[in-house]
Amino acid sequence: MQAYRLTAGGGIAGLALVEAPDPEPGRGEVLIRVRATALNHRDLMIARNARQAAVPLSDGAGEVVAVGAGVSRFAAGDRVAGCFFPGWSDGEVAPEYIRDALGGSVDGMLAERVVLPAAAVVRIPTHMTDEEAATLPCAALTAWNGMFEQARLRPGQTVLLLGTGGVSIVGLQLARIGGVRTIITSSSNEKLARARALGADETINYRERADWERAVLDLTGGAGVDLVLEVGGERTFAQSLAATRLGGEIVLIGGVARGEGEVPRVPLVARNIRATRIYVGSRAMFERMNRALELHRVHPVIDRVFEFAQAADAYRHLESQAHVGKVVIRV
Amino acid sequence: MQAYRLTAGGGIAGLALVEAPDPEPGRGEVLIRVRATALNHRDLMIARNARQAAVPLSDGAGEVVAVGAGVSRFAAGDRVAGCFFPGWSDGEVAPEYIRDALGGSVDGMLAERVVLPAAAVVRIPTHMTDEEAATLPCAALTAWNGMFEQARLRPGQTVLLLGTGGVSIVGLQLARIGGVRTIITSSSNEKLARARALGADETINYRERADWERAVLDLTGGAGVDLVLEVGGERTFAQSLAATRLGGEIVLIGGVARGEGEVPRVPLVARNIRATRIYVGSRAMFERMNRALELHRVHPVIDRVFEFAQAADAYRHLESQAHVGKVVIRV
Amino acid sequence: MQAYRLTAGGGIAGLALVEAPDPEPGRGEVLIRVRATALNHRDLMIARNARQAAVPLSDGAGEVVAVGAGVSRFAAGDRVAGCFFPGWSDGEVAPEYIRDALGGSVDGMLAERVVLPAAAVVRIPTHMTDEEAATLPCAALTAWNGMFEQARLRPGQTVLLLGTGGVSIVGLQLARIGGVRTIITSSSNEKLARARALGADETINYRERADWERAVLDLTGGAGVDLVLEVGGERTFAQSLAATRLGGEIVLIGGVARGEGEVPRVPLVARNIRATRIYVGSRAMFERMNRALELHRVHPVIDRVFEFAQAADAYRHLESQAHVGKVVIRV
Amino acid sequence: MQAYRLTAGGGIAGLALVEAPDPEPGRGEVLIRVRATALNHRDLMIARNARQAAVPLSDGAGEVVAVGAGVSRFAAGDRVAGCFFPGWSDGEVAPEYIRDALGGSVDGMLAERVVLPAAAVVRIPTHMTDEEAATLPCAALTAWNGMFEQARLRPGQTVLLLGTGGVSIVGLQLARIGGVRTIITSSSNEKLARARALGADETINYRERADWERAVLDLTGGAGVDLVLEVGGERTFAQSLAATRLGGEIVLIGGVARGEGEVPRVPLVARNIRATRIYVGSRAMFERMNRALELHRVHPVIDRVFEFAQAADAYRHLESQAHVGKVVIRV
Question: Do B276 and C272 touch (CB under 8 A)?
Answer without folding.
Answer: yes
